[in-house]
Each structure stands twice: as structure tokens, then as C-alpha cells.
TrEMBL record:
InterPro entries: AH/BAR_dom_sf, F_BAR_dom, FCH_dom, PSTPIP2_F-BAR. It holds the Pfam family FCH. PROSITE patterns: F_BAR (PS51741). It comes from the Eukaryota. Residues 4-264 form the F-BAR domain. GO terms for cellular component: actin filament; cytosol; plasma membrane. Keywords: Coiled coil, Cytoplasm, Membrane, Phosphoprotein. PANTHER family: PROLINE-SERINE-THREONINE PHOSPHATASE INTERACTING PROTEIN 1, PROLINE-SERINE-THREONINE PHOSPHATASE-INTERACTING PROTEIN 2. This is Proline-serine-threonine phosphatase-interacting protein 2. One of its GO terms (molecular function) is actin filament binding. Residues 295-324 are annotated as: Disordered. Binds to F-actin. May be involved in regulation of the actin cytoskeleton.
Length: 334
């Protein structure tokens, strides 16, 4: 920064007031608290990433996923499970990186705490010294003012006693007046000495206040820059995790591009085929025709025809009483 803003904007007209310093300290304490909150956030995020990574790892290694697939789709599934495993490992590694960043934030926070402590001790001491000297100065002022009033009363008493004939009483009044004048001189010197001491302490306090403002402003600039960079790095890590995961999933997409539906179908057919000739149709066989055409035992049989012969033609017409006979066999119940 080109100029300090703290040292010119945190004063008070009241010499005992520390409101400017207190406001700066409150702001620095809030900044330290914010760093601690971000540190805790990183730790929580690391725990989430680690838990997710381990769960994803268990899912990839223990849960079946298309284990009976064959050929090109099987190879694609193997790539898929391997890349899911890799993604899980990346999340676990990210958790470790986040814990490392949280550790750096903690170290930075503690470093600033120690740096501030030195300045705080100096400022606390000078504030106490200033407050104590101010009290002494005010007490010396009161004493001086009281001695002045005592002297004034002694002078008035001497003036009123000018007509007294008792010399002893007048002498006592003159002695009291002389004593009061000496007391005024002594109290005046003491008061002026305290004023001088207080002014030296005030100048010392102002000098230390300016130094503290400059140190605290430099520290706050450093904290803001560190916090900003830490947050930037954090989101970069998250973005890199997404990029890395996408690169791994791209390997799965490439393996899926190599997957061939036709080759998988052909592979299955070649591995599990059972034959190319379907069964012949089941034909109707007339019971009586099979009995008539039965070959006696011992005789050679001719070729078995797949189709039965034509039905016998009745010898009588429908009007004939013997119409129901087929080869001398009556179809009517008698």
C-alpha cells in the first residue's frame, strides 16, 4: 500500500480513550476468527472427501456391476470400474491436500497471533502507564488548586487581621501565610512535573500507537492476501478434481465407443450356439391307418412316409343304408 490508513483514522480527543485501538483489535480478532472458521471448513470438507472416496472405493471393489457381461461391453465395464476406483483415490488424495491447506492456515494464524502479542503487550503497558500518570497529574492538580485556595484564605485572614492589636495572632497568620505560599510553590512544581511527565508519556503513547497501527495494518493486509490465496487455491483444487475425474470418465467413454453391439451378439452366438436345424413339425397320425399299415413282425418295413394317405372313399351313397360302412366296418352302433 502507498500509505497507512490505520494510523490516521483511529484517534480520540479523550486522552484516556482507547476506542481507536480497541476497534482495530476487534477487527483483527474477527479476522483471526474468520481464518479459524475457514480452517475448520477445510477440515470438514476433507472429512467429506475422504468419506466419499472410501465409500466410492468400497462400491467399486465390492459391488457387482454387470459381472456376467461379455466381450466388448465387458471390457468397457472393466474400464468403468477401474476409473471409478481411480476417481475414489483422487478424492482421498484431495482430502489429504485439504488437510495440508488447513494446517498451513493454522500455522499462519498462530504466527500472526505471536506477532500481535508483542505489540499488544507494549500497548497495554503504555495504556496503563498513561492512565496511571493521568490520575497522578489530576491528583497533583487538585492538590495544587487546594493549596492555592489555602493561600488565598491565609492572605484574606492576614488582611482582615490588620487592625488586631494582638501581635501573636498576627504572627500566627503571617506564618500560616508563609507556609501556604511554600505549599503552593511545592504543589505547583509537583503539578508541573506531573504535567511534563504525562506529556512525555502521551508522546510515547502516540508514537507506539502509530507503530501499532502500521504493524496491525501490515498484518491485516498479509492476512487478507493469505486468506484470498488460500480460498483461490481451494477452488482450484476442487476444479482440478473435476477435471481429473472427467479425464478418467473420458477413458470410460472411449471404451464405450469401442463397444460393438454386433460383435457382442456374434460372440454370444459363437460361444453358446446349439445348432442350426430347427425341429420338424409334429404330423397328425391316423390311428386306424397306422394299424392297417402295420407291418407284421419279421417283415421289412418300407420308408416311413411323413404324410398319411387319402381317406377311404365310402362304397355307398349317402342315401344307402350301408353308407356308414367303411371297409365292411359299421360306424353306427347296433
Amino acid at each position: 500500500m502507498t500509505r497507512s490508513l490505520f494510523k490516521g483514522n483511529f484517534w480520540s480527543a479523550d486522552i484516556l480513550s482507547t476506542i481507536g485501538y480497541d476497534n482495530i483489535m476487534q477487527h483483527l480478532n474477527n479476522g483471526r476468527k474468520n481464518c479459524k472458521e475457514f480452517e475448520d471448513f477445510l477440515k470438514e470438507r476433507a472429512a467429506i472427501e475422504e468419506r466419499y472416496g472410501k465409500d466410492l472405493l468400497n462400491l467399486s471393489r465390492k459391488k457387482p456391476c454387470g459381472q456376467s457381461e461379455i466381450n466388448t461391453l465387458k471390457r468397457a465395464l472393466e474400464v468403468f470400474k477401474q476409473q471409478v476406483d481411480n476417481v475414489a483415490q483422487c478424492h482421498i488424495q484431495l482430502a489429504q491436500s485439504l488437510r495440508e491447506e488447513a494446517r498451513k492456515m493454522e500455522e499462519f494464524r498462530e504466527k500472526q497471533k505471536l506477532q500481535r502479542k508483542k505489540t499488544e503487550l507494549v500497548m497495554d503497558a503504555i495504556h496503563k502507564q498513561k492512565s496511571l500518570q493521568f490520575k497522578k497529574t489530576m491528583d497533583a492538580k487538585k492538590n495544587y488548586e487546594q493549596k492555592c485556595r489555602d493561600k488565598d484564605e491565609a492572605e484574606q485572614a492576614v488582611s482582615r487581621s490588620a487592625n488586631l492589636v494582638n501581635p501573636k495572632q498576627q504572627e500566627k497568620l503571617f506564618v500560616k501565610l508563609a507556609t501556604s505560599k511554600t505549599a503552593v510553590e511545592d504543589s505547583d512544581k509537583a503539578y508541573m512535573l506531573h504535567i511534563s511527565t504525562l506529556d512525555k508519556i502521551r508522546e510515547e503513547w502516540q508514537s507506539e500507537h502509530i507503530k501499532a497501527c502500521e504493524a496491525f495494518e501490515a498484518q491485516e493486509c498479509e492476512r487478507i492476501n493469505f486468506f484470498r490465496n488460500a480460498l483461490w487455491l481451494h477452488v482450484n483444487q476442487l476444479s482440478q478434481q473435476c477435471v481429473t475425474s472427467d479425464e478418467m470418465y473420458e477413458q470410460v467413454r472411449k471404451s464405450l465407443e469401442m463397444c460393438s453391439i454386433q460383435r457382442d451378439i456374434e460372440y454370444f452366438v459363437n460361444q453358446r450356439k446349439t445348432g442350426q436345424i430347427p425341429p420338424a413339425p409334429i404330423m397328425y397320425e391316423n390311428f386306424y391307418s397306422s394299424q392297417k399299415n402295420a407291418v407284421p413282425a419279421g417283415k421289412a418295413t418300407g420308408p416311413n412316409l411323413a404324410r398319411r394317405g387319402p381317406l377311404p372313399i365310402p362304397k355307398s351313397s349317402p342315401d344307402d343304408p350301408d353308407y356308414s360302412l367303411v371297409d365292411d366296418y359299421s360306424l353306427l352302433y347296433q
